Amino acid sequence: MAAPLPSDALGRRLLCGAEYATVRYVGSVPPTAGIWLGVEWDDPQRGKHDGTYEGTQYFKCRHPRGGSFIRPNKANFGVDFLTAVKDRYGLNNEQDVQHGTENTLVFGKKTVEFVGMDSIAEQQRQVQLNQLVDISVRECAVSHAGQKEEISRTCANIRHINLSKNLISSWETVTAIASQVQNLETLNISENKMKFPSTSTSVSSVFSKLRILALNQTEITWAEVLLCAPGWPVLEELYLTSNNITVLERPDNVLQTLKLLDLSDNQLLDGNQLHLIAHLPRLEQLILRNTGISSIHFPDAGFGCKTKMFPSLKRLAINDNKISQWSSINELDKLPSLWSLQCHNNPFMDTEKNPETLRQLIIAKISQLEVLNKSEILPAERKGAELDYRKIFGNDWLAAGGNWNPEKNKPSEEFLAAHPRYASLCLKYGAPEEGELKGRQPLTLKNQLLTLTIKCPEKPEQKPVEKKLPESMTVQRVKGLLYRLLKIPGSELKLSYESSKLEGKEVELDNDLKPLQFYSIESGDCVLVRW
C-alpha cells in the first residue's frame, strides 16, 4: 500500500526511482482525474516541459524541460533520521524478526523457548546505537527528524554526522535533528537542496559545539550564511562549494572563530569581493578554486609593506581562475602570514613556458612562501630563485634608473611596481655585478642542452640518473633541481664533476652563481652529489 501524501508535500524533496526532484505543484491536471505532483528534476534531462501543460502553467522551472507530472504513488518522500541509521547499521527490528528462530533451542523432541529474548535483543540494539559516535547516512533518503527526543534517547554519543545527498528540504529539519545531538562537532549536509531562513533567527544552543560544517551544493547564499551564522559560535571550518554565491558581505560579529573557508566553484563577481571577508581574525586557510577571479589587490598597503587584510591567512588556493597579471602574485607578498600557495591553471602561468623558471619567479616574488603547489620550497631553492631573479631583471633595473652607486640608484615607479621585491633582494645579496649582466649568452647558446649522469657516491644503492640540463643553468639552480629530484633533506649540497678527458680528476662546482658552461662541462660527463 502506498504511503499517504504528506500534507506539506509542496516544496518537499523526493525520490522517483533513482532521480531527485522538488515538488512544485500538488493538485489536479485536467482533463485527467486524480491528484498529480508537478516536480522539478535535479537533472533537467529527466523532464518533459517547464511546468506548462496544454497551455496552462501549473509551476515554473529553471530549465525549459526540467519539469514533469508524476502520480503520488511514484514518489518516495523519505524516512526519519533514526530509521535510516538503523537500516544503515543493520540494527532494525525486521532483522530480529528474520532471526526469530534463534530464540528457541530443541532438546530431543522438546522445544524450549527463551522467554524475554526479544527484550534482550532490543536492549542490545539500544546499546549498539548508543555506542555510535561517527554516523553516515549519505543517500539514505532522510527527510525528517522523527519523533521528538527519540534521537537523543537512542544515540546519545553522536559527534559526527554525514547527512549528504538526502531529502532534507529545509534548515528547520537540520535544526530538529541537531537539537537532539548534544555534542555535535561535525555536520555534512551537502547535496541537499533546501530552504534557509530569510530573516534573523533566534540564537539557540543547538550548534554550540559545532566545529566543521559542509553546505556544498545546497543553494545557500552568502546572505543566508550570515543569517544562520550567529548559531555557530565556535565554527572553525565552513565548506560552501558550488552554491552560485556571487557576492559577499562583511561578517559583523559572526564567523569570528573560522579557520577554514572553502568558496570553490562559486563564480564571484570580482576579486574585490575578497575584501569583504578580509578581516576574519582567525582565518588560516582560504580555498578559492574556480571562482572566476581575475585579479587580487590589497589597496591598504604599498609595495614592500604588509596588508592588514587576512592577518592570519597561511594557506591560499587560487587554482583554476582567470588571473592573468603577475601583479596579483606581487600582491600576495603583502599577506603577513602566507606560507602555502596553490595557483595552477591561471593565464599568468602561460607567460613562461619553462615550468622550472615559472616556479622560481613565484618563489622570488613571495618572500615567506614555504610550499608552492604542494611542493616544499627548500632554503637552497629559494636562494637560487632569488639570485636568478636579481640577475634576470638586472638589465631592466639598469634601464629603469637602477645604479650600483646607492646615491644614483633611483629605479622608476613602473619598475618597482612590476618588481616590488627587487630592492630587498639587492640588499640581501648585493646588486647584480656588471659582468653578470653583460655576459649573458645569446638564446641559441643558452638553449643548448647537456646530457649528464647524476651520481651520489655516498648512497651507492641509489641508481645514477640521466638528465638534460641547459649549459647556461647556474650551479644554484642545478642544486634546487637535485633537491627535488633526489628527495634530499635540507642540507648544503656539494657538487663536482668527472670527465673522461680529465683522467679521474674531480672538478668542484664551487660558485653557485656560475653557469655549467663556465666549468667546461660537456655532454657525457658525470655530476657527483654529496651532502
Automatic annotation (TrEMBL):
Q: Where in the cell is it found?
A: Cytoplasm, Cytoskeleton
Q: Which residues form a coiled coil?
A: none
**Domain CAP-Gly stretches:** 27-71
What PROSITE patterns has UniProt attached to this entry? CAP_GLY_1, CAP_GLY_2, UBIQUITIN_2
One GO process term, biological-process aspect? cytoskeleton organization
Q: Name one Pfam family in it.
A: LRR_9
Specify the domain of life of the species encoding this protein: Eukaryota
Q: Which Gene3D superfamilies match?
A: CAP Gly-rich-like domain (2.30.30.190), Phosphatidylinositol 3-kinase Catalytic Subunit, Chain A, domain 1 (3.10.20.90), Ribonuclease Inhibitor (3.80.10.10)
What SUPFAM superfamilies does UniProt report for this protein, alphabetically? Cap-Gly domain, L domain-like, Ubiquitin-like
Record-annotated Ubiquitin-like domain positions: 450-529
Q: Which InterPro entries match?
A: CAP-Gly_dom_sf (IPR036859), CAP-Gly_domain (IPR000938), LRR_dom_sf (IPR032675), Ubiquitin-like_dom (IPR000626), Ubiquitin-like_domsf (IPR029071), Ubl_TBCE (IPR044079)
Instruction: Supply the alphabetized keyword list.
Output: Acetylation, Chaperone, Cytoplasm, Cytoskeleton, Leucine-rich repeat, Phosphoprotein, Repeat
Q: What is its main location?
A: cytoplasm
Note the subunit structure: Supercomplex made of cofactors A to E. Cofactors A and D function by capturing and stabilizing tubulin in a quasi-native conformation. Cofactor E binds to the cofactor D-tubulin complex; interaction with cofactor C then causes the release of tubulin polypeptides that are committed to the native state. Cofactors B and E can form a heterodimer which binds to alpha-tubulin and enhances their ability to dissociate tubulin heterodimers. Interacts with TBCD.
Q: What does this protein do?
A: Tubulin-folding protein; involved in the second step of the tubulin folding pathway and in the regulation of tubulin heterodimer dissociation. Required for correct organization of microtubule cytoskeleton and mitotic splindle, and maintenance of the neuronal microtubule network.
The record's section on PANTHER family has: CILIA- AND FLAGELLA-ASSOCIATED PROTEIN 410-RELATED (PTHR18849:SF0), LEUCINE RICH REPEAT PROTEIN (PTHR18849)
- Please give the family membership noted in the entry: Belongs to the TBCE family.
* Name this polypeptide is given: Tubulin-specific chaperone E
Q: Which organism is it from?
A: Burhinus bistriatus
- Gene label: Tbce
